[in-house]
Design a protein that fits this description.
mainly beta, 0% helix, globular, 134 residues
Length: 134
């Protein structure tokens, strides 16, 4: 279980470790980013599955924990984002494998759960996104 957050500078590939770290040491979380604004680390396992979502502001590396969180404590999940719009966190393991997908609007970090979800329940999955032309 780790709370460490390493930051890599794209300009020279140097690494620093954020002093803030995660709000709680965990394993099996997922992460996404709203490019230029903030990164998010969602869910994980601390001895039990957590619904925690930590947000890291890129401007000063400060961490806040979203009041919304995931709709259920979940580990082994995947995340992707459409920068400037919303991030999606889905699948994983809550009390069983899940097909649930939570959407976080970047404008106010509010959460909704998609009615459609994944095509089937699964865990330990991957995700990617096409954020379009920037």
């Amino acid at each position: 279980y780790l709370a460490t957050v390493d930051k890599f500078a794209f300009s020279d590939d140097s690494r620093t470790t954020l002093g803030t770290g995660l709000s709680e040491a965990r394993r099996y979380p997922s992460a996404m980013a709203n490019s230029g604004t903030a990164g998010y680390v969602a869910g994980g396992y601390t001895g039990s599955r957590v619904a925690t979502v930590d947000k890291f502001a890129f401007s000063d590396d400060s961490r806040t924990t979203l009041g919304t969180g995931l709709s259920a404590g979940t580990s082994h999940l995947a995340a992707m984002a459409d920068s400037g719009t919303a991030g999606y966190v889905g699948g994983g393991l809550d009390s069983t494998y899940t097909a649930k997908v939570d959407k976080f609007a970047f404008s106010d970090d509010s959460r909704t759960t998609l009615a459609s979800g994944l095509s089937s329940a699964r865990y330990a999955l991957s995700a990617f996104a096409n954020s379009g032309s920037l």
